Sequence to fold (658 residues):
Amino acid sequence: MERSSQPQAGLIKRGSRARGETPAYSKGLRTLSISTVIAMAVSLSLVFFYAPLEAEQGFLQKIFYLHVPLAIVALCGFVLGGLLAIAHLRTRDPRWDYRSYVVIHMSLIFAVGTLITGSIWAKGSWGHWWVWSEPTLVSFLIVFLLYATYQPLRFAIEDPERQARYASVFAITAGAFVPLNFIAVRLSTAYLHPRVLGSTSNLPGSMALTFLVSLAAMSLLFATLCKYELTAKHTRAQVRALRRRLEGQAEARRAPRSAAPSLQHVTAMTAAPPPGGRTTGQR
Amino acid sequence: MTSVQDPPPQDVQLGGMQPPAQGGAQPSVEPASPARTVRQTGFMSTVAALLRKELLLELRTLESVPGMSLFAVSTFVVFHFALNRNSVEGDFAAGILWVTLLFAAMLGVNRLFVADADQGGFDAFLLAPVDRSAMFVAKVLALLGYLVVLELVAVAAFALLLLGSPLGPALPGLLVTIALGDIGVAVIGTLVAALAVRTRARDLLGPLLALPLFVPIVIGGARATSPLLVASHPAWPAVRWLLTLGLYDLVFGLIAFALFDFLLED
Amino acid sequence: MIVVTLAELPALPLHTAGKYVAGAYIVLFALVLIYVAIMAIRLSRIERELGELLACAREGELSAGPGERPAGPGERTAAAGAGTQPDPAVPAVCPPGQDDVAQPESTLA
Fold:
C-alpha cells in the first residue's frame, strides 16, 4: 500500500506537506479558528459597548455592523471565486476549481445572510420587509438569483472535467457581473431616494473603528468556514480513495452525478506514487 | 434541416478559405510563414463564412425569427389584458417594451446553438484550423440580426397596439438605446446559450442564467427610454444610461470573447 | 437627585429596536451553528467509515497471513445496508460503502 494513501490524521496539523504529496487543507485551520473567535468577540464587544448610538436610527443601527460586513465579504467572495476560476482555466488544475466552488458556495450563504439581515433592518426602519430603494439589497437579490444557478449548472453536466470548465466560465462571468450590477442598480435608485439604510462614508472615528473590526472578523469567519469546507470535502475524498484501494479496485465505481467537484483528480494524486517531492498547491 | 447539413459542414464553413489539408505540403499563399498569415487573415473570413452559414440556415428553416416576432406580438396582447389598459406611456411603456423584447430574445437564444450541438457542428468546427472565437463573433452577429428583425416587428406592433404617445419623435433615441441594448443581449445571450446547450436542462438553464445578467441592460434601457415614450416633448435619452449600456456591452463583450474558447473544447 | 438622573438616562429601547438587532445577530449565529451541525454529521460519517475500513484492513491482513482468501466479510457488514460483495477472486475484500452508491452531494458538500 502506498504511503500516500494513509490518512495522515495525526500529521495534518503539523503540515504533512513535508511529505510533498497531498495538500493538507487543514493546515493553519486551528490558528484561523482561534483568531476568528477572538476577532468576533472583540467586534461584538465594540459594537455593543463602545460604538455610540447613532442619532437617527438609534439602537437599530447596530445591525449595520453585521449587515454591511456580511455584504462586503460576500461580494469579495464572489469576485474571488471568479479569480480562482481564472486560475483554473489557465492551469487546468482541478484544485483551483475545487477552491472556486467552495468559495462561491460560502459566499452564497453569506449573501443569504446579507439579504435576511438587510430585510430585518428594513423592517425595523421602514416597517416593510423589503424596500426597493436600498440599492445594496436589490443588487444582492440579483446576484443571489444569478449564483443560485451555479449549482444546477454544475449538476446538469456529468463529465467532471467539462463541469469544472463550464463552472469556471460561469464563475468568471458572474464575478465580472457583480461590480457592474452594483453600479447599474445604484445608478437606477440614486435619483429616486437617498440611501435609506445608511452608508459607510462619513463615519465618526469610533464607529469607523468598530466597522473595520467587524469587517475583519467577518472576513476571518469566511476564511475559516471555507477552510473547514475544503478540509471536510478533501477528507471525504481521501476516505473514499482509501476504500477503493482496500476493495482492491474490484470495480471501477463511478461516482454518482453530483454538483460538487468530484475530487477524483485530487484523490488520483493521492493514490499515485509521487515522483519525489512534487510541489503541491498552497494551503 | 438535415438536407441543409448533408453536405459536410466544413465546405460551407470554410467557404471563404482554402481547405485545411491538401495532400502533402501546405499551399503557400504567401512565401513567408504561410500558416501564420493564413490564420491571421482568416479570422474575418471565418466569421463571414460562419455568419453566412447561420443566416442561410435561418432563411431556409425560419425557425427563430418568425417565432420571436410572433411571441412579441402575442405578449403585447397578453399585457393589454393583464394590465387592463388600452394604452401605456412613460415607465409602463418602457417596461412592457423591454420585457417583451427580452423574453422574445430568450427564445432566439435558446435555439442558437441547438443545431450545432445536436448535429455535430461543434465537432466539425473544432477540426478546422481556425480561431475558435470566430464562432462567437459570428453567432453574436447572427443573433444581432435576428434581434433587429424582431425589433422592427415588435416596435411597430407596440406603437400600433399599446403605445399611447407618438412614436415618430421618439424614434431616433429609441433606436439608439435599443441598438446598445441589443449588443448586450446578443453578447450575453450567446455566452449563456453556449453554456447551457450541452447540459441536461438546456431550456431551463438558459433563461435562468440569462435573466440576472440582463438586469443591467433592462435598467439602462428602460430608464433611458421611459422619458421618450411620453406624449409631451420627448427628450434624447440621458447620456448616463447610454454610457451604462455601452460600458456593460464592452466589458461583457471582451469577457465573453475571451471565455468562449473554453466552452468549445471537448 | 440620583433618582432623577437615573430616570432621565436614555434607556436602551429594547422593546422596539432591540428585537430587530437581536434577530439579526441570531440569524448569523444560527447560520454558523447550522454549519457546525452539518460538519458534525460529516465528521461522524467519516469516523464511522474509517472505523469500518480499519477493521476491514485488519481482517484482510489477518486472513492474508494463512494465504487464503478471507472468509466472507459479509457477517461484518452490519451497517452497510447496500453492501454487495465484489468479486471474491480479489484478495482484499472490503464492503463497499453506502456513500459510493447512494448519496448525491446535495447538502453543503
